[in-house]
Amino acid sequence: MIHKKKEIGIGLVGYGFIGRVHLLGYMNLPFYYDPVPARASVKAVCAASEESCFLAMAQSGVRDYTTDYRELVKREDIDAIDCCTPNYLHFPVVLDALKSGKHVYCEKPLAMNVEEAHELVRLARKSGLRNQVAFHYRFVPATMRAKGLIEEGALGQILHFRAQYLHSGYIDPNRPLSWRLSKEKGGGGALFDLGSHVVDLMRFLLGDYQDVMARLHTFITERPDPKRPGAKGKVDVDDLAILQVKMANGSFGVIEASRIATGANDDLRFEIHGTKGALMFNLMEPNWLWFYDATQPQEPLGGRSGFIRIETIQRYPKPAGFPGPKFSIGWTRYHLASQFDFLRSLSEEGYKPLGATFEDGLRVQEVLEAAEESSRTGGWVNVRQGVE
Questions:
Q1: 297: Cβ–Cβ under 8 A, 6 or more apart, which residues?
Q2: Residues 147-156: tens digit of each pLDDT
């Protein structure tokens, strides 16, 4: 279903940290892309409290709000729902949005489990509505260039890789409980929060997963409970997730996700090794992709062998034009590119999105669930794939 309108009405559900990022993106798309395929107009915001709604309106100029997302999905001036809620609310919000004929842009992970993700994929297929999961690291110019090099055959046969997403924000044992530390509301810990990103990114670059062996561990098992001053509550999600994976292309990899990596900030990095070359990337140095061409002569004295630094910077394809390809890139820019891709998929017939669809989100959910099963059983688990 393609919209020929010059304006796409957006209903934003959730106004925590990531809700602010998405709203900022919609407001700034016309500066970064000229022309935009259609203008994104946030018609209303929904948040759990009126205070958050008032803050969103004050910061953005959005004129309407509600504390009940079901009011948004019924509105005729809203074409798409952007879901920025805690993980446990993704399923009901997205389900109601699809049933009401709304396109959906949803934060990661798509759902709490494979069963929920299956249902959303089935409904999205049946409805024909556009859908995207905000796996925005697909839109780092360096990762886009990495995908191009792999598809060109510059690495030859992929042999093995390692990928990490490391944060240190939960190393403090006095950080209080929140929905991200609850299995019931978050679905998982580091595995869901950070691991989902890196699982999608490596699938984006290398293809489907086949088998997983994983170990999930919780180091800090109790934290202060903000609902009970002076008391502590149990943490029932992982602090650290380590996965060994076998890919459908025959390569092997190790994936690590940690929220207790002392010294880390937002360290998403990967190394990929093939028979003809290798790639390295670190999100903390996002302007460069490192490439090793093993076909270069190594004599005399090293010849021309060695890693070269490709200056990907902000080299997005047109109609991106601001601030320009030569300037250093930042974290919010990837979100903007992801949102633009979604908007373009709503507006241009035949456009093939780069972003993750709900089916891609399901593929990630299958790996997360296989990792949880492997951690319980201690063995390799085959990654289930497909929608009945």
A1: 303, 304, 305
A2: 999 999 999 9
